[in-house]
Write a structure and sequence with these properties.
With 404 residues, the chain is α/β, with parallel strands linked by helices. The chain has helices spanning 16-30, 50-63, 79-90, 108-114, 133-141, 196-209, 249-252, 275-286, 292-301, 304-330, 354-365, 391-403, and strands spanning 37-38, 102-105, 125-129, 148-149, 154-155, 159-162, 180-184, 212-216, 242-247, 260-263, 269-270, 273-274, 335-337, 343-347, 367-368, 370-371, 382-386. The structure holds D-malate.
Length: 404
């Protein structure tokens, strides 16, 4: 008789953003006249930049001619894109990462979720609390987290590292030593960052203990302050202890196109085995490569016109962030984030739970955000708003929130 993977039964009933979608649909069915503004899921709203669209058109045209048609992409990505990433994302920041160490994929979410497959199920994981749910859920599916304790809102075998207003939403080194450490900076959901010297402490800690840092840098393009690292490889020694995930989704509006990459340095060796070779083996077996036309679109991101256009888009979103942060602050809310990241993290008023505040905003202002408790117990009594809306919706949403 076939058996299910019973670890799936330890997961919450639905993924956080599916649950939010379900609640909003129910509300709209009951209130069809409501003009609901969504600042919940971090999905971009501005169209793809013209330089990227031109490149997409050209690549589509190539596919229609025998001499330029492309079939399967190389497993690890086209050289033309990997070279651009190596030069513009790494060499330009003083990091020595070769094109060969870059694995092109269809996005950081899949890679963050799948990377745990190359590690033993006996590894102990540590996550920030609050945390992007994918890191925990993918480890639950793999049987690495132990049972869920509903009272604590935690999995028994996971090390939760509190990120609080007191520590600036950047975790302190944990008391128990983890094998795998998930870090995401600029942070989703809090919008916090780590300065270079803070991140260096984590790199030194991982190298001392033989731990691996899984570093999600999907929001690095939003960094505005000088001393904030864009890559973990800006820290000394990171190549022997860290894997980095990057995404074109938030950088260049690719949430619908799908493109990202993972960096595994050749020096990253565990038990005498290169993690690069394990991930290459996995990629080759389970993945046929991101589509040619999308990789050409990714290449256009690095062109002069592409860079100017995506920088303008990022500025547009960060103006939204500023508007949300400053106006909610003036209205008496305790807010953080929104300076180096497109997320604003606010304390719920009057000690409301995160979901109470979600319902309050939905019913009172027809505005959707993300309840902080959906990101872990440390997110309770917090709420996340994204800066990815249109300007018009962002201004209207903030004004409605202030009025209720
Ligand atoms: C979010 O809202 O947290 C993002 O959509 C996460 C993601 O990119 O998957």
């Amino acid at each position: 008789m076939a058996r299910i993977n019973s670890d799936y039964l330890k997961l919450p009933g639905s993924y956080l953003f599916s649950e939010i979608g379900r609640r909003v649909r129910t509300y709209q069915a009951e209130h069809p006249e409501a003009d609901v503004i969504r600042l919940g899921i971090g999905d971009v709203t501005q169209p793809i930049a013209p330089a990227i669209i031109d490149s997409l058109h050209a690549a589509v045209e190539e596919m229609g001619h025998p001499e330029s048609f492309k079939g399967y992409a190389p497993d690890l990505g086209y050289e033309f894109l990997r070279q651009k990433i190596a030069v513009y994302d790494y060499k330009a920041r003083g990091c020595e990462i070769s094109a060969e160490e870059i694995f092109v994929s269809d996005g950081a979410k899949c890679d963050c979720a799948n990377i745990q497959e190359i590690f033993s199920t006996e590894n102990r994981i540590a996550v920030c609390d609050p945390v992007y749910p994918v890191y925990v859920d993918s480890n639950v599916m793999a049987g690495r987290t132990g049972e869920y304790d509903p009272a604590a809102g935690c999995y028994k075998d996971v090390i939760y590292m509190p990120c609080t207003a007191e520590n600036g939403f950047a975790p302190d080194l944990p008391e128990q030593t983890p094998d795998l450490i998930y870090l995401c900076f600029p942070n989703n959901p809090t919008g916090a960052v780590m300065k270079k010297e803070q991140l260096q402490k984590w790199v030194d800690y991982a190298n001392r203990n033989g731990s691996v840092i899984l570093y999600d840098a999907a929001y690095e393009a939003y960094i505005a302050e000088e001393d904030v690292p864009h890559s973990i490889y800006e820290c000394e020694g990171a190549k022997t202890c860290a894997i980095e995930f990057r995404s074109f989704s938030k950088t260049a509006g690719f949430t619908g196109l799908r493109l990202g990459f993972t960096v595994i340095p050749k020096e990253l060796i565990l038990e005498g085995v290169s993690l690069w070779s394990l991930w290459a083996r996995r990629h080759g077996t389970k993945y046929n490569g991101a589509p040619y036309i999308i990789q050409r679109a990714g290449e256009a991101v690095y062109s002069q016109a592409g860079q100017a256009q995506i920088r303008a888009q990022i500025s547009y979103y960060m103006e939204n962030a500023k508007y949300i942060r400053e106006n909610l602050h003036s209205a008496g809310y305790t807010v953080s984030g929104g300076v180096n990241a497109p997320y604003i993290w606010l304390k719920t008023p009057e000690n409301m739970t995160s979901w109470e505040f979600f319902d309050h905003l939905l019913a009172g202002a027809n505005v959707v955000g993300t309840p902080g408790s959906g990101f872990g117990p440390g997110g309770e009594h917090y709420f996340r708003l994204t800066a990815f809306g249109s300007r018009e919706n962002t201004v209207e949403a903030v004004n409605r929130i202030i009025r209720i």
